[in-house]
Each structure stands twice: as C-alpha cells, then as structure tokens.
Amino acid sequence: MKLTAYNQFALFEELQPEWNDLVERSITNRIFSTWEWQSTWWQAYQPGELWVITCRDENNRLIGIAPWFIESNPQHGRVVRSIGCVEVTDYLDIIVDATQITPVLAEFATFAAQHGQQFDLIDLCNLPEYSPALQQFPDHLRAQHFEVTIKQQEVCPVIALPSEWEAYLEALDKKQRHELRRKIRRAEGADEKVAWYIVDQNHDLNQEIERFLHLMASSQAEKAGFLQDPQNIAFFKSIVPIAFERGWLQMSFLTINGEAAAAYINFTYDGHVLVYNSGLLPNQYGHLSPGIVLLAYNIQHAIQEGQKVFDFLRGDENYKYRMGGQDTRVFMLIARKSAG
User: Fold this and answer.
1) Is 58 helix (H, G, I), strand (E, B) or coil?
2) CATH code for the domain of 60
C-alpha cells in the first residue's frame, strides 16, 4: 500500500475524480464525507494546516482517505482533527473502502505513529456508532503506542421509515399520533390559506436562500448569533447551491396567507433525509403549529419518495422524539502518544 500526505488545497482538485467513488464504497456513506462538502467546508473555514492522508493499493486504486487537518490549540498544542469538525457537520469518519477496512486503518495508525512529531493530540469528532474508525481504529492506534479514549459526544435521533404514511402514524405514541393529526387538520382547515412547497428549478434559489436565512435568524437568538459569523454565512451560501445542483437539497417552506412561516433545509442522500436546519416565525401563527406541520409534510414526502431513514441529526430536542425519533449515537476519539 502507498500512503501520501497532502497539505495544499490543490489536493481537492487532484482527488476529485476518485473521492466520491470511495465514499460510496465506504460503510459511512454520508453527504458530509463527499468531496463537495469537505472541499467547501475547508474553503470557508481553513482553521489550520491540511493534513489529508490517502492510501492506495498495489493497482494505485484509492482505498482510503483520512480527511484531517492540524489545528494549533493553546491548551493541547497541535491537534489532528477531521475536516468538517465540529459545528456545521453531523457525521464524520475516515473514508475507507468497505473491503479494505482493517489493512487501511492499520496503515493510517502506523503513519500517525511515524509522523508523531507533527502533532500532540488526535481528536476526531462526530464518529457514528457504526463507524470503522470507532470500531477498529482505536486498537490499531494502541498497537502503535497511543493512549486512546472514546467518549459519547451526542445523539442523533432517527426514524426508520415505513412504506406508508399511516404505518408511520400508527408507530407513534398514541398521544403524539392524536396531537399530530389534530395539528395537521387544524392547519388544513384554517381560515388562513396554508400551503407548502419544496424549492425546485422553477424557483429563484438565491431568493429562497435569503428567505430561509431570515426565518432561521428569526427562530432563535442562538441561530441569529450563528449567522453573524461571516464564515458560517460563506459556508451556507456555498454548500446550499452545490447540494441543489447535485440533487441533494430539499429546502421546503410552509406559507400562511402567502407569507413564509416555517422552513426546513434537509439533504437527501443515499436513502436518508437529513434534517439539517430550520427556521420559523416564533411569534406569529403559533396557533397553526407551522413548524410541526411542515415537518410532518416532510416526513410524508420522504415516505412517498421511498426514502429509508429520516435523520434529525445531532441534538436531543423533544420534538424529535415526539415525531418518532430513536437515538443513535456519535462519538469522539481522542488519542495521545504514550509517554513510554
């Protein structure tokens, strides 16, 4: 096997033809590992020095990418982190061909040990519970004399989608099922005109992005603060059009008397609907529950499309469980060079 370390942005252009093919051959095939997401995130944030390690087999086929960078931290020194970590990306992993997991991870651990003078700590975030990096990489690191700690970071509630809307409703708690049906009936029978739509080629995407950002900032002070950061805005305004072009974007709005009252940005990728962010007018139309009604429409639409999973991503907010979410977990891997 041949390993190569890259530290220049040009690596993304060089690896673009092969990157997503490898992602699709990996166990953790998620939008957050795609070339589009990783390169766009790096371009927006650039929080350190790139340190992306690739692994190729004897036929020069790309079989592994460790999409890392090294960040200078006043407390921990030079820290190896995952591109995308931590705030705007929900799942991250070492990208490995599913048929080559053990040898590739062993090679990456050996490489890290051989280049230990370049960093003080490895801190990999947002590893899903089924991640090979979580299941196997710690043992490979320990074999190279690293001390490894695994910590649960957060939960990601998900719904395994049935084939029919009524089956989804029947799976809910009786009280929650009654409440959801009541809210939908109330919205659909209201004196106000309630409608919803998903942004498509017939809409002005830039205008819809601005409409979404307005609702997002209006919904919570925390979200408004997040949008004050120009890097966050730059990333958002870059990744949304890219996802739209790739067919991964599902931006939906619920309107009341023609005014946008609630919105969701979801990503649809590999049979999963990922609920990425939302917006709401919190002090208007509360009697019509626009956020929950729109979410219900999104779930119903996902079922009609034949999607497999509706993923609420990181966070344990109550509404996710009321809508039927069941916890999955994401973890953090921390590795230090052994003093011995």
Assistant:
1) coil
2) 3.40.630.30
Q: Which residue do the tokens 């049979």 mark?
A: 271
Domain count, the chain: 2
List the alpha helices (DSSP H) in 115-229. 132-135, 137-143, 165-171, 174-188, 205-219, 221-226
Is position 313 within any domain? Answer: no
Length of the chain: 340
Token pair, residue 255, equals 């309107």
Selection from 242, 233, 232 nearest residue 12 by Cα? 242
Judgement on whether residues 263 and 301 belong to the same structural domain of the protein: yes
Cβ–Cβ under 8 Å, residues 238 and 88: no
Q: How far is the CA of 23 from the CAs of 18, 38, 209, 246, in angstroms?
A: 9, 12, 28, 15
Instruction: Decide if pLDDT at 339 tops 80.
Output: no
pLDDT digits (tens, 9 = 90+) for 49-96: 999 999 999 999 999 999 999 999 999 999 999 999 988 999 999 999
Containing structural domain, residue 114: 2-154+329-337
Parallel, antiparallel or unpaired: strands 326-337 and 309-311: unpaired
Cβ neighbours for 40, distance < 8 A, ≥ 6 positions apart: 235, 238, 239, 242
pLDDT in tens, 234-276: 999 999 999 999 999 999 999 999 999 999 999 999 999 999 9
Identify the CA nearest to 70 among candidates 53, 95, 89, 88.
53
Q: How far is CA 132 from the centre of its chain?
A: 17
